[in-house]
Design goal:
Blueprint lengths: L9 H20 L5 H10 L3 H13 L7 H11 L1 H25 L2 H6 L3 H12 L1 H10 L5 H9 L5 H11 L1 H13 L6 H23 L11
């Protein structure tokens, strides 16, 4: 039996080199469709293509899988407007399902077991629901799925959660969808500005939620 701690030998590197060489030859010899050809092929599938994309996006992003790949693909396959619409609808559905699952599985009980600071932060977020949801969605550095789970253990009501999610997802999603539409991968200063501005606004909202006094009479979500 070989020692798992033993460094890979020469044969290992030879196999790796052959695999890499085969991949390079395959990429150079097999004709790949251009972005426009790929979009035309998807368009030829009719309404099934966007419907399947929306369903797959909504289901997969309930898990911690990043939305970025879907947003890039949407811009590439469907163009900026349809791509943005599909991503926003799918992301909102995913956000609703994630919160519903967390609350169904007893997220509130987990919240009650948290330390005092966590309970205080939860109370502030819940009492400033729309601002809290919108501002945190605007921060590009906050992952989508973990944020959904976090709101699942708060008492934020459904109306501000849905509205804040729909508003807060627009800037960052639009930037990534436009990048996919460009299909060049080149640096785009306007898209960087969108990320920086939305992130700054979101961070300001988060700080405001954390510092503002709790509004009395906040009721738990149902």
């Amino acid at each position: 039996m070989s020692d798992p701690r033993r460094p890979p030998g020469r044969a290992h590197w030879v196999v790796l080199a052959v695999v890499l060489l085969a991949l390079v030859v395959l990429a150079l010899t097999v004709p790949l469709p251009t972005p426009l050809e790929l979009r035309d092929r998807v368009a030829a599938l009719g309404a099934w293509a966007p419907a399947a994309f929306l369903a797959l996006h909504a289901v997969v992003t309930v898990t911690p899988v990043p939305r970025t790949a879907f947003s890039l693909a949407a811009g590439l396959l469907f163009g900026p407007w349809l791509g943005l619409g599909l991503c926003l609808v799918a992301s909102t559905i995913s956000a609703v399902v994630a919160v519903a699952v967390v609350r169904r599985l007893g997220g509130r009980a987990v919240r009650r077991l948290g330390p005092g600071r966590v309970r205080m932060l939860e109370a502030r977020l819940s009492s400033r629901g729309l601002l809290a949801v919108t501002s945190t969605r605007l921060v590009p550095a906050i992952p989508f799925a973990p944020l959904n789970y976090t709101f699942g253990v708060t008492t934020v009501r459904w109306r501000p959660y849905l509205l804040g999610t729909a508003i807060g997802l627009v800037p960052g999603t639009a930037a990534v969808v436009l990048l996919g539409d460009a299909a060049t991968g080149s640096f785009s200063p306007p898209m960087l500005i969108v990320f920086l501005v939305s992130g700054a606004i979101g961070l300001a909202g988060v700080l405001l939620c954390a510092r503002a006094p709790e509004r009395p009479g906040a009721e738990p979500a149902e």
